């Protein structure tokens, strides 16, 4: 179970890190032209960059607290926050008729729920 939780959190951190880098540093107009990025054309630059920074923080929160053994409870807390972010992403992509992206966000949501459940419940970090 512990290994599955580490892999799930690591995968989410990876996705979050690269999504955050993209949203933070790639111009919004370029994101809007990319597959799956059309929603950024309807959002402000500040909003997109803010989401990017939140995703970078999520990448850190899903991995660093446990790796450094400093406040590892932040891992499941971050997973809960990631769940909320994925619900928003699913709503956004659903409104745009992007069912494949809704399904992908559902996978990320399921992984985040698994990490939150596992680290709050049966496999917490020893502290």
From TrEMBL:
Recorded superkingdom: Bacteria
Signal peptide positions (record): none
Spans traversing the lipid bilayer: 6-26, 47-68, 74-93, 100-120
Coiled-coil intervals: none
Protein name per Swiss-Prot or TrEMBL: DoxX family protein
Record keyword Transmembrane present: yes
InterPro entries: DoxX
Localization terms from the record: Membrane
Membrane topology: Multi-pass membrane protein
Organism: Streptomyces roseirectus
Keywords assigned by UniProt, alphabetized: Membrane, Transmembrane, Transmembrane helix
One CC-aspect GO term: membrane
